[in-house]
Amino acid sequence: MKFNLRFLFIALFICTISIAQNKGTISGVLTDKDMNNASLPFANVLVKGTNISVNTDVDGKYSLSVNPGNYTLIFSFLGYESVEAPVAVKANETVTINQGLSAGSYTLKDVVVQATAVSKQKETALLLEQKNAVDIKQTIGAQELSRKGVGDVAAAVAKTSGVSKQEGSNSVYVRGLGDRYNSTSMNGLPIPSNDPQRKNIALDLFSTDIVEYISIDKSYGAKMYGDFAGGNVDIVSKDYRGKGMFEISLGSKVNTNAVSNSSNFLLQQGPNKSGFVSYGVPNNPLTSFSFENSLNPKKESPFGGNFNLKAGKTFNIGEEGKLSLFATAGFANGYEYREGLSQSVNAQGASLKSFQQEKFTYNTNTTGMFNANYRLNKNHKIGYNFLFVNTSEQTRDTYYGSDRDFDNENADLLVQRGTFTQNTVFINQLLGNDKLTDKIDLDWGLSYNTVKGDMPDRTQNKMFHNPTTDVYTLAQRTTTDNQRYFQNLTENEAAANLAFSYKLQDQDGESKGKITAGYNGRFKNRDFEAIQFNFNISQTGQNTSVNPNNLDAFFNQANYESGLFSTASFAGMTPQTYDGKQDIHAGFGNIEYKFANKLSLVAGIRYERISQTVNWRTQLDAGGGTNTFERNEFLPSAVLKYELNEKQNLRLAASKTYTLPQFKERALFIYEDVMESVIGNPSLYPSQNYNLDLKWEMFPKSDELFSVTAFGKYIMDPINQIIIASSTNDISFVNIGDTGYAYGIELEARKNIFEIEGEYTNKLSFGFNASLMKTHQDIDADKVREETDGRLNINTTDNSSGFTGASDLILNADLSYTKNFRNDSGIMATLAYNHYSDKLYAIGNEGKGNLVDKAMGSLDLILKTKLTKSFGIDFGARNLLNPEFKRVQENAGGDVLVFNYKKGLTFGLGMNYQF
Q1: 277, 420 contact by CB (below 8 A)
Q2: In whole angstroms, what is the distance from residue 777 CA to residue 878 CA?
Q3: Whole-number Å distance between alpha carbons of 26 and 85
Q4: pLDDT at 124
Q5: What is the tens place of the pLDDT at every residue in 223-235?
Q6: Of 28-42, 639-653, 815-829, which gets the smallest average pLDDT?
Q7: CA distance 294 to 279
Q8: Which letter does DSSP use for residue 661 in this model?
Q9: Are 474 and 462 spatial neighbours (Cβ–Cβ below 8 Å)?
């Protein structure tokens, strides 16, 4: 028996070897026809009718071992037409099948992105680019944006490690550093802010429909502008490749808070549903009551929706030329409602202002984009990008409660404010890439951008309410209590990039790196004006009963003529103004060099000449004023990369940068809100920043990643927003102390839980990133007094604090399941979670504790389906946990709640069809 088993084993072994020796091999290279036959990494090669498949390597190469016979190979890649090729295989022979693929004319909505560049959309290709680059960078492409159900760029960057978005605003924080420490660009060219209160454009203006990929640079390089400390977000626009595509999509969404108040959803009159308005300051407002819009609110049905059109086509021109066109246009709107406490308290917790706030909101986003990319041949490319974005937000706020400045023992105080803001952005870019010789490349870019920000006819009225008699009367302690306000901003900016690169080679002709030298210029002009019309209510008018929802019955031409109220402004019909001019000229040099097979260096130096001038004429300085500073900045940077093995890298980066104050922060202008007022400081000056990063990363598979990054930042003369010691407790901007620092660690993981290979995808994957950090800054009241010549004084509760907006812990996690079926149908489901720990909102003063936003988490569910080759349905459920947002004042006697609300759940349903 033993002999027989041994004989059988030997026979099977010999048979197996014989079969293996008789197998044949199929090998070859896959290339991209639309990219001059560049290699296609991570493309799929499948033996039809079997489970035998393989992915191409980084050079587009593949190899398969099969038994002798006749087969059909299926070559496929994301966004490209699949190709079938017959092949006959003989024993012990190798058959070479090279295949070129071109972009197809079909797509799985938001899962397979139509006709796109390989290296700029697929997660695996972006990870490959990240792995091979010397610089430290993170990218998020259209494929990942779709999988996580991300609809705009702000939500996209908040999915990356170390980045958070402030609740209730457009502010993005990178490693605990807020708006002033970050920068935004599009295709490498700077873009201006759409908001006079902000340095950076609101990232949620940009729909992901226009995005090829987003790059987040958290370590500085000499090619970037030096106004950097947290990170730079670069939005790279679509570059279409394909035979032709036209797609239409429709959707609807509802917010549970808004729908539950649908019977009483009230907004101010004037703005229309489109988000575009044309009204402004009326004629003769100081001698008549001629305002165009009614003060009476109107009822709305709070059901939002969206529609979008996309089209693209590529044309061959001559033997080598190719023209690619892409355009998209869309409109989206939505309604929100929230209610909760809004108050300010003193150090003992006693109320200074205490209101129950209701906020009704309607917002719109209109986007139009067109780009044309012309490849003359493999050496020359030129492109034009145009982007138009119009957003609007219409809010009606009501505050009901008490204000110590409106002490009335028989009545409560009601404040009504109606605000409409319209922001319009025009971006024009001309980009080029030229290969001048085999070793010299030229990259260049020009842009001209315009931003218009309007706040026409903001209204505010204050009333006393006697709960016993249920009578409302107009309240007045100053003439500014009842007002109408108009604000206009226009900013024009031109920019230019120019960079020459020279490739370095060894004696054998192998690449050793490159030297880059270039110029950047950025020239910005801003004009801002605002005028406020205050209504002085006569004593008779203050005793007249009014209806809060029918104030037109009081504020009208007849009552104006009878003297119940009069109208005045700061300086007649002359508005308050400020204007700013900022010029930056920069030259840079950069060398990228590979010392050995595993060690590489990027080192650079940048020089910038900066000039910033602000002029103003405001109610705080009726005679007008001006302030100018000029700076010369020398900014070194270096990155070392060591390849531990083919799957692991170690990187070290160090740099020096600076942080500029903004026009609004230096103009002596005051902006008044219901709960706070903000005033500029002409004495503000730039901070200096020193940055250090150490990163380890591992790529187990083409679509998997593990990384750990330690970072540190040392900031000299940090700029902060803080309450100044004054009778009105205004907020201003100061260089708060000599030093500040931030340090922390970031973790990131992308892992496939299971993946069944074959003709149809069946995959479950997990993504996770977390950031742990600590921030600290000194507070020096004497420094503030001396540098502002005694104009500003601060009296903070503590002599140090963390950075405003910074969380010690930020966490993102997602679980995604993808399944493809026959006939180009499929399904993708993603569950995404985000959490941030307590974060500092404002620094305490006069014995009051810091204002802190408490920890909060959110959970979203995204479901995307493709039912046929052309038709798909999507569903989204956001904020499923519906947590309560809380802001507390951390007094010595304990935390006092000062602000809270819940956002409600938002459900969306959409469908798309491609022709």
Answers
A1: yes
A2: 36
A3: 12
A4: 65
A5: 999 998 888 888 8
A6: 28-42
A7: 13
A8: P
A9: yes
How much is the mean pLDDT over the chain? 85
Report the distance separating Cα 876 and Cα 254, nearest Å. Answer: 11
CB 218 within 8 A of CB 174: yes
Provide the pairing of β-strand 670-672 with 705-716: unpaired
Condensed to tens digits (0 to 9), the pLDDT of residues 818-872 reads 888 877 788 888 888 888 899 888 888 888 899 999 999 989 898 888 888 889 8
Please provide the size of the chain in residues. Answer: 915
pTM: 0.83
Strand partners, 172: 165
Contact predicate 231/218, CB 8 Å? yes
- Secondary structure of 408-421 in HEC code, one letter for each residue: CCCCEEEEEEEEEE
Q: Return d(Cα 523, Cα 142) in angstroms, integer.
A: 32
Burial category of 698 from C-beta neighbours within 10 Å (exposed 0-12, middle 13-18, buried 19 and up):
middle
Q: How far apart are the first and last CA of the chain?
A: 70
Paired tokens of 790? 């005694």
Cα(354)–Cα(457) distance, integer angstroms: 26
Read off the amino acid at residue 722. Answer: I
Minimal CA–CA distance to 382: which of 450, 349, 315, 429? 429
Q: Are strands 231-237 and 182-186 parallel, antiparallel or unpaired?
A: parallel
Q: What b/e sequence results for 376-407 when a residue is b if at least 16 CB atoms lie within 10 Å of its CB, and e otherwise?
A: eeeebbebebebebbbbbbbbbbbbbbbeebe
Q: CA 328, CA 238: separation in Å to the nearest integer?
A: 10
Q: For residue 722, give the 3-state DSSP assignment.
A: strand
